[in-house]
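R.M. (postdoc): so does anyone remember the format we settled on? I'll just put the structure tokens first.
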């Protein structure tokens, strides 16, 4: 059981929990004997309960939150898509609207969850470099001063169709999305519910269609060299540490606010890909120059920024609170993920 909570199993509601992170958490807590309820647009067969919702309107699903111990909202249109105007609008609105909806429902409950955790992203930070152009570590205060992420309008969608036409780069589009996302979260008036924003890095899991799967396929095809300059930092976290960090924050009732869920040792793309090749026992990999990534991203209907932008996020608050990572270094994490992949898929 989780220290600090009731000794009996918890009721944990995962809104938008049918994606990779939701399934990681659902498995983790189900295996520990907790009652897991996943709110999803398309109910599916699982070991845990699934309930329909659309992330936009109230409905019978709100009964799942009455008396629940924890609500974790992971809702949001995937960013792994081409950043055209329609997709940018969907990415933005899916996060803001669902967060506002969950906040409205929690505020109206007779017995609201004691904890509401809301997804966020490590890409909230502005990149910072030293005099030599080397990326500086970004903890929860770097690039986003205390309160800055929460200072946007409490209703970012108050105007019809806020313009996203010019949001093409990470610091123009993705950063704006995450800042408004957190602003909507912290603006929700839920005085009886503790709130934690999960600024998550790239969570790596040995499952099909995951980021780890995509990168591994490139490596095994001989295409696992550096991507772009290879100097951009890759923020990452092993799926096990992601689930453990969420559990840790659930137990620590003295903690609230924003936390970086990322391994403490991000590394440049060149070193990241080299360690992944070593884990797969592939000695070499062809590099992918920026132009090749941009062309490939176009045909794959995704955004090159997901690979090319640098973000050296570190988990300052988690470490200060005493959290210990099982996989703090990428080479060890890569070896574990490859071992699991081979056991499950090869």
């Amino acid at each position: 059981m989780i220290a600090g909570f009731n000794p009996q199993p918890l009721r944990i509601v995962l809104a938008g929990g049918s994606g990779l992170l939701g399934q990681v958490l659902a498995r983790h807590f189900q295996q520990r004997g907790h009652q897991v309820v996943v709110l999803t647009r398309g109910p599916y067969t699982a070991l845990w309960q699934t309930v329909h919702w659309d992330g936009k309107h109230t409905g019978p699903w709100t009964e799942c939150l009455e008396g629940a111990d924890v609500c974790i909202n992971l809702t949001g249109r995937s960013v792994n898509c081409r950043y055209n105007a329609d997709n940018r609008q969907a990415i933005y609105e899916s996060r803001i609207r669902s967060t506002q909806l969950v906040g409205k429902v929690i505020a109206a409950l007779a017995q609201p969850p004691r904890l509401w955790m809301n997804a966020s992203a490590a890409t909230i930070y502005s990149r910072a470099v030293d005099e030599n152009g080397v990326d500086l570590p970004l903890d929860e205060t770097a690039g986003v001063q205390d309160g800055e992420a929460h200072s946007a309008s409490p209703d970012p969608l108050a105007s019809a169709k806020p313009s996203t036409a010019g949001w093409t780069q990470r610091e123009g589009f993705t950063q704006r999305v995450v800042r408004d996302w957190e602003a909507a979260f912290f603006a929700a008036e839920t005085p009886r519910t503790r709130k934690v924003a999960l600024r998550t890095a790239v969570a790596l899991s040995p499952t099909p269609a995951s980021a780890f799967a995509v990168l591994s396929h490139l490596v095994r095809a001989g295409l696992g060299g550096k991507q772009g300059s290879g100097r951009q930092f890759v923020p990452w976290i092993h799926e096990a540490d992601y689930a453990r960090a969420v559990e840790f924050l659930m137990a620590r009732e003295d903690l609230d606010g924003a936390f970086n869920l990322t391994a403490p040792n991000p590394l440049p793309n060149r070193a990241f890909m080299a360690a992944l090749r070593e884990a797969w026992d592939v000695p070499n990999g062809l590099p992918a120059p920026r132009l090749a990534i941009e062309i490939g991203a176009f045909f794959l209907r995704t955004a090159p920024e997901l690979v090319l932008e640098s973000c050296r996020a570190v988990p300052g608050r988690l470490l200060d609170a005493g959290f210990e990572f099982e996989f703090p270094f990428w080479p060890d994490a890569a070896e574990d993920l490859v071992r699991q992949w081979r056991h499950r898929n090869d």
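R.M.: ...and that's the designed sequence above, right after the tokens. Also worth knowing: Residues 11-203+235-264+313-326 form a domain with the Rossmann fold fold (CATH 3.40.50.720). Residues 159-171 have pLDDT under 50 and may be disordered.
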